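Record type: monomer structure entry
Structure origin: computed from sequence
Chain ID: A
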Amino acid sequence: MVVVHLTASQFYGGPERQILGLALALPPECRTVIASFPEGGGCRAFLHEGTRHGIETVALVHDTPRLWRAVGEIADLLQRVKATVLLCHGYKANLLGRPAARRAGVPAVAVSRGWTGESPRVRLYETIDRWHLRCMDHVVCVSHAQARKVQHGGTPPERTTVIHNAARLERFSAPDPHGRAVLQNYFRQPPRLIVGAAGRLSPEKGFQVLLPAAAKVLREHTNVGFVVFGEGPLRQQLTDWLAQHGLQERIVLAGFRSDLDRLMPSFDLLVLPSYTEGLPNVVLEAMAARLPVVATAAGGTPELVEEGVTGHVTPVGDSEALAARIGAVLADEASRRSMGNRGRERVEAHFSFASQSRQYLALIEQLVEAGTEKRPCTLEGVN
């Protein structure tokens, strides 16, 4: 079996970790090839990481606007490596991967991780993606919440399968002894408790809700600090807000780090304030690192976080509720430890890459046995 992944990687982030984790979990007789559009050179970080782990990687030559040349290049790759299936990650990979897979005579599977709607341009692309998913041989949804969205867009339930994201458990088995010191160095006066958050600094991730919630927590807990990892278009707005409220030394915008998983076990709590999610990798990794989680009920997040057991789930956009739950967890050390341990147990039982790989193998075998067919695509019902 030869599994080819097609993506448009701009950095080594959550989706890339999922692709690599699946590749490493498949049995030795399964060959994986990871191909990425060049993205102005942005693909190098992910492809280098894949190569470092012994995975075959391909940096494609053609990209926008030479779309048909890109389709031909992908089809040639599929034929050259004798691909069994093409797994497409993202709307560009879906749009160009499907006709390429048709030429090569292999099934094309879209992996639907969620839609952000962060800008008019992205919303247009995501509308096209909802339509195009109807044409794929199959759609893997990373959560039941995302499956409902995909099916609402017109993809039949019989061509959708939920396969949850997973966490590489071994990454969190031996925490970095220097991780806590790295986090404390972000503060002029290191706090006793550190709350972590991570994600793209864009409207759908809800950091504009987290900051007021954090400010309320800090008024009641003087020994706490917040570190937010990530970059994005809201950085200046968030920076200005912190300066206006005099909180720059207690709430730190730490930028993007590719080694966040190394630091994760050194947090005391992970917070996710999103408006929209598929199935958040950062929550999975936090649970694998034995951290309690306070998160909004966005997308598939409630499928991960068990209320009162592994953390708390709050209404989307409600900074007061977010602050209350953060404060409650920080005030109870025994509860933090219990929630963290239960989170690790939950990931081990339900969200391992070993389990995920078995589900992908079963799906691929089913698709190969059924063969491919040309599917008509219509815009009817897309919204």
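Annotation 1: The chain has two domains: 2-166+353-370, 169-350.
Annotation 2: Residues 333-350 form the longest helix (18 residues).
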